[in-house]
C-alpha cells in the first residue's frame, strides 16, 4: 500500500515539474515576445530577451540557443526603434544606445593575427567560436538598426550604433597553427550606408 502512495506522489511531482517547464517555455516563446511588442510593452519583451540571453550564456557554442536569442533580439530591437524614432526623443535614443553598448560578448575574443598552437587552440576554440558567432549576429542587428535610423533621418543615432559594433575575425589554419584575422567588412558596410545617406541628404 505504501509503495502505491509513493508512486502516486512521484507522478504528481513529475507532473508539476513538467507543467512548470511548459510554463517557462511559453513565457520565453516567440508568441510571448511578439504579443509584448504588439502591446508596446518593451519592458516585458526585454525581460523575455534576458531569459533567452541567460540560456545563451549557458550554451555559448550552441546553435539553437544563439539562434533563439538573436531571432528575438532582432525582432524586439527593430520594433522598439520603429516605435521610438517617430517620437524624436533624444533621451530614448541614448537609452537604446546604452542598451546596445551594454551587450556582454558571449565567448572569448581571440587575439587578432596571433598564431595559436594546436593544443592552445583546442582548449579555446569553443569560446572563440562563441565570440565570433556573437559578433557576427550583433553586427547584423546593428546594421538593421542603422538602416532604420537612416530611414527616419536620424543620422546621429546611426553613427552611435556604428560605434558599438564588434570586431569580427576570419579563422585561418596552417601547419597546425590557427590565426584569427580581423575582418572589418561589417563595419565597412555600415559606414557605407551612412556615407551614402550623407551624400544624398547633406
Structural overview:
The chain is mostly helical and 202 residues long. The chain has helices at 2-27, 30-38, 42-58, 63-84, 90-101, 118-151, 155-163, 185-201, and strands spanning 116-117, 168-174, 177-183. The longest helix has 34 residues, at 118-151. A hairpin with a 2-residue loop joins strand 2 (168-174) and strand 3 (177-183). It has a 3-stranded antiparallel sheet, with helices on one face. It is flat and about 55 Å long.
Query: What integer is the average pLDDT?
Result: 87
Shape by Cα distribution = flat
Widest sheet: strand ordering: 1-3-2
Strand content is: 5-15%
Distance between the termini: 85 Å
Query: Which stretches are low in confidence, meaning pLDDT under 50 for 5 or more residues running?
Result: 15-24
Number of helices: 8
The secondary-structure class comes to: mainly alpha
Write down the Rg.
22 Å
Largest sheet: 3 strands, antiparallel
Detail the topology: elements first, then pairings.
Blueprint lengths: L1 H26 L2 H9 L3 H17 L4 H22 L5 H12 L14 E2 H34 L3 H9 L4 E7 L2 E7 L1 H17 L1
Antiparallel strand pairs: 1-3, 2-3
Helix pairs in contact: 2-3, 2-4, 3-4, 4-6, 6-7, 6-8, 7-8
In short:
Helix content is 72%, strand content 8%.
Key features?
8% strand; mainly alpha; 202 residues
Amino acid at each position: 500500500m505504501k509503495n502505491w502512495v509513493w508512486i502516486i506522489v512521484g507522478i504528481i511531482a513529475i507532473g508539476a515539474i513538467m507543467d512548470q517547464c511548459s510554463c517557462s517555455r511559453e513565457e520565453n516563446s516567440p508568441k510571448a515576445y511578439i504579443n509584448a511588442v504588439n502591446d508596446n510593452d518593451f519592458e516585458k519583451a526585454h525581460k523575455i530577451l534576458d531569459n533567452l540571453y541567460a540560456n545563451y550564456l549557458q550554451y555559448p557554442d550552441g546553435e539553437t540557443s544563439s539562434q533563439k536569442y538573436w531571432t528575438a533580439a532582432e525582432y524586439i530591437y527593430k520594433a522598439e526603434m520603429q516605435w521610438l524614432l517617430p517620437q524624436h526623443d533624444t533621451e530614448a535614443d541614448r537609452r537604446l544606445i546604452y542598451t546596445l553598448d551594454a551587450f556582454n560578448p558571449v565567448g572569448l575574443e581571440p587575439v587578432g593575427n596571433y598564431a595559436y598552437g594546436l593544443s592552445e587552440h583546442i582548449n579555446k576554440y569553443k569560446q572563440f567560436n562563441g565570440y565570433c558567432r556573437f559578433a557576427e549576429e550583433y553586427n547584423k542587428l546593428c546594421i538593421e538598426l542603422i538602416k532604420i535610423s537612416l530611414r527616419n533621418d536620424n543620422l546621429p543615432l546611426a553613427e552611435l550604433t556604428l560605434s558599438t559594433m564588434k570586431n569580427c575575425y576570419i579563422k585561418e589554419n596552417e601547419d597546425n597553427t590557427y590565426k584569427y584575422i580581423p575582418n572589418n567588412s561589417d563595419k565597412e558596410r555600415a559606414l557605407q550606408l551612412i556615407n551614402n545617406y550623407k551624400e544624398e541628404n547633406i
